[in-house]
Structures are given as C-alpha cells and as structure tokens.
Amino acid sequence: MGGYSWGSAFDSKSGQMIMVALLLMVGSFYTGTLFGNNNASIYVSQLSSSSNSSSSHGLFSLSLVKFYFIVVFMQSSALHGVFGDGFCSVECIYTFTNKVALAYRQTPIVIPESGMNVCPLKFNEYIPCHDVAYVKTLFPSLDLSRREELERHCPPLEKRLFCLVPPPEDYKLPIKWPTSRDYVWRSNVNHTHLAEVKGGQNWVHEKDQLWWFPGGGTHFKHGAADYIERLGNMITDDTGGILIKEVNRLLRDNGYFVYSSPPAYRKDKDYPLIWDKLVNLTSAMCWKLIARKVQTAIWVKQENESCLLHNAEMKQINICDTVDDMKPSWKTPLRNCIPRSAQTNPQKLPPRPERLSVYSKSLSKIGITEEEFSSDAIFWKNQAGHYWKLMNINETDIRNVMDMNAFIGGFAVALNSLPVWVMNIVPMSMNNTLSAIYDRGLIGAFHDCMLFALPVGHFVTWMHDKESYQDYNVQGFIIIRDEESFTSRVQHLAPKFMWEVESHVLENKEKKTETVLICRKKFWALV
Predict the structure, then answer these.
(1) What is the value of pTM for the model shown?
(2) Which residues form a coiled coil (predicted)?
C-alpha cells in the first residue's frame, strides 16, 4: 500500500487525538495559502534562527484533558523563502518527497509514506467546508436572508480534499507587526480587483508591491450603510426578534448594546415601525435606553429579575425553561425566550489587570476551589516561560494566541504582560467554563477543533479582513504535550505534513514528566 493506515495502527482514543492534531496541520495548509500557478517540485529555503530574530508571531494552545496544543502564528520579516529552524547556518534549499496530486478523504485515513500530497494549484483558494461551488448546491435548503450560505457546510467525507494547499507564487513572509497593521505584500493576496472594488470605500489601495489599508474605510461589498441596514432588519424580522433575544442571553448584566442602524435615526420608509418594534422588545427584556444621538442608540441590560417576571406575567416575553449551563451551547438552536438571571447577587469585579487574579463566584459554581485556582495560575506562568525558551524566540515575537482548551483561562493570564492577543477556546466536549473566563476579563468561545473562519492572509490579527482563512502562518508553531506513546506517533507523522518537530520533557500539574513536542510549520513553495 505504501501508506500509513490509522485503522490498524492506533486504538480508538489515540486515533481521535492524532486526528485532532493532523486536522490542525491539514487546516494550517488549507488556510495558510492562497494563490499560485505551477506544480513542479516542492522546495523549502532555510536560514538559521536566533533569539534576536526580527520575526513576529502569534500563539495557539490546545489541550484536550491531558492533551495540549500551542500554535504560534508568526509574522516575520519580508525575506522571501527563508525558514529559520536552527539547523542550517546558511541559506539552504531542500527538496521534499511529497507529491503534487489531488487526494480525498479515505476511511481509514491513509497518509502516503512520501508525505501528504500537495493539492494541484487550481485548488489554491479551496477552503474546507466553505467551498463556494458546493454551497451553491445547497441554496434551496438555506435561509439566504440570514446569510446561512456563509456558515460552515461540509460535504460528505469522500468529497473532502485531503491534501496540502500550496502558497501563492512569489509568496513572502508577512511584514512585521505593527507595520503589518497597515501593509500587506500584494503577491500574498494577488487579486488586483481588490483595489478597484474597494477603492471607493477607502478600505484598501494598491501601493507598489503592497496593499495599503489606510484605516477608516469599510470592506463591505455595498458599503457599511447597506450592511448596517441589513443587520437592523434582521434584529426585528418576522422571527419575533429572536436574534436580539440571543444578544440578551450573551450580554452580561449592566452590559451595553450599541445600535447604529437607520431605524435609530431615519423617519422615512418603514424605519419608524422597525424602531418601535425594537423599543418594545428591549423594554420587554428590561433593557434601558440611555442614549439616542446622531445615528446611534445605546441600551444597558439592567439587573432586574422582578421586571422580567412581571413582563412574563403580562405575556410580553417568554421565560426560558431551566437548562444546564455547564453544557456548551454548541450548535444549539436559538430559543425565542429570555433566560432568567444566572446570579441573584452578582459579584462586583475590579477592573483589569486586578480582575485576572480574583477568585470569582463563577469559579466556585463550576467546582474550582481557591487552591486549584491559585495552582493553575502558577502552573501556566511557569509553562509560558518554558515554551518561549523551547521555541527560542523573544517575548515580543508573539502576536496572536489561541488556547484550544483554555479551562479557566490560566494560560491567557500568564501571557498578560506580553503584547499578545489571546482567544480562549472551550472544546464542545468539555464542561462550560466560559463564565470563569469572562469573569477574568478575557475573551473566549466554544469550538469543535475545526478550522476557525478567520480573515484573509492573516493581515493583522484574526479580527481584520476577509476573503479567506489563515489559522497558521508559515514558521508558526504547534506545541503538543501528552504521554510518550502518543507524542511518538505525532512525531512520526508531522514531517509528512512538512512540519519540523523537536521533543522535550516538562512537568505536568501532577509533577510527572510529560513529553512536549515543538512543531514548526516550514516555509515551502512549488517551483
């Protein structure tokens, strides 16, 4: 067969863990590349690295029970074709054995001995579960008014590509932060019509070899006004305002809702009617309108349980049935009702950074003791220091961080003194600990270890731009830690995805030694 079959090599549990690791690696290649036009040999150019590298990165951490990943997104200098790995003292060119061939998912999954196949270049812009051609076949079953076509729609396994997407022709390593906030190499996103389509919106302009983002513009196809108007109509559509009721569920007590849409300031068309519906909805939810000026209205969600109960008795709203808050709300249908306040006597928390270290009521509610809380903070502070040393990078080289099993946000807190942006992820299979993460003043979300719908080209951070996805920049890291029996299998498979692997040993929370793999995504291209 000449391949590596999972069906016979791994038990069920290990196979699932390996699958998660490889999905991340496959995803990094699906989402980390865009355009190109030839399919010859695969090369990588390498140069020695040091702690004084001019690179700027981001970090991503995933842990499943005992199983951890950390992925570092790198925004490096503009030196094209250079990969720093510490093993080559001069610039080196390596030829890989990976083949350029279209491949689809099989059961069991088989990885060729020559390495993962590289997709033909005509699939450069292929995005898993966001394939435009496939989604169009689903239009009859989708609610286009709610833009369901933009959500994830995965084809059957046998129709999913299982090959690495190559980088575009003349791809350059991303410009170093903070310059990358305003400039992107044009060859990395070589769609010249961007400037034509977006020029009038002052979103992006062509400037020599660069795309320039002047700021203050908008990337919306028909301008921000059209986009905001659609949002306003969706909030009070014929579903009974179910979307704004979902906002109410997500909004914390004393939180603010800012509304900038034509119904807030225009008197023509049916805008006054929409405004009246919105005011009735927010009043029924016991929100208070505190400002309405120019083109914006602001409400505050009040702590008023008696108001909710009264309005429910008056049939103005429906109170939701009690649900288990510890279970993640992953892919749970929206409910056309209002939940009761989760806290009868909400705790007043201090501002950041003090808030990061406060033992909140939400921690007690999910069963975390003060001792466990303190122990978790100490552990992750130590681990963060170890990771930087093992990756051999400066503290300022990290830019974006994702912790894929954040638990109570200890790792993000450990990075608080660094100039990084952290997304905390609670896996859908774990208990709901987001309340503890939010109480610490951190950001977080549920997820299922699939690709994040991130912006094109990883221009600045994950919150900026469009058109495609890039979970892992070239030269980024994944840190995997688990028992030797598992990490040894990952160590064998990672090079087949053109990742470099180094093995280390650290202590876990139980003071037992644990294998830690530092995996780095190589910078390669078809030439």
Answers:
(1) 0.72
(2) none
Q: How many CB atoms lie within 10 A of CB 504?
A: 15
Place of tokens 């959500």: 151
Distant-in-sequence contacts of 255-259, Cβ < 8 A, 24+ apart: 255/300, 255/301, 256/298, 256/299, 256/300, 256/301, 257/282, 257/287, 257/298, 257/299, 257/300, 257/301, 258/296, 258/297, 258/298, 259/232, 259/235, 259/296, 259/297, 259/298, 259/299
* Cis-peptide, bond into residue 333, ω within 30° of zero: no
Q: How far is Cα 213 from Cα 467, in angstroms, rounded to an integer?
A: 15
Q: Please, what sign has the CA dihedral across residues 418, 88, 486, 425?
A: positive
**Which tokens hold the place of 298?**
């602001």
Q: Number of structural domains, the chain?
A: 1
Residue 293 to residue 264: CA distance in whole angstroms: 9
User: Does the residue 211 lie in any domain?
Assistant: yes
Is residue 317 a part of any domain in this protein? no
Q: Where are the beta strands (DSSP E) in 65-141?
A: 67-75, 83-84, 92-95, 110-112
**Residue 282: closest CA among 335, 332, 245:** 245
Residue 426 inside a domain? The answer is yes
Instruction: Give the number of C-alpha atoms closer than 13 A to the C-alpha of residue 170, restricted to the C-beta side.
Output: 7
Cβ atoms of 233 and 202 within 8 Å: the answer is no
CA distance 328 to 445: 10
Task: List per-residue pLDDT tens for the chain, 527 residues long.
Answer: 455 444 444 444 555 555 555 555 545 544 443 333 333 344 443 333 333 333 344 344 433 333 344 444 443 322 223 333 334 434 556 677 889 999 999 888 889 999 999 998 888 778 888 888 899 999 999 988 777 898 889 999 888 899 998 888 888 888 887 888 899 999 888 787 777 776 666 778 888 999 988 876 655 555 556 666 665 555 555 567 888 898 998 888 888 999 888 888 888 888 899 899 999 999 999 999 999 988 889 999 998 889 999 999 999 999 988 776 666 666 778 888 998 876 556 678 888 899 999 999 889 989 999 999 999 999 999 999 999 899 988 777 778 888 888 999 999 999 999 888 899 999 888 888 998 999 999 999 888 766 554 433 222 222 222 222 234 567 788 888 888 888 999 999 999 999 999 999 999 999 999 999 998 888 888 77
Range of the domain at 431: 3-126+161-220+360-526
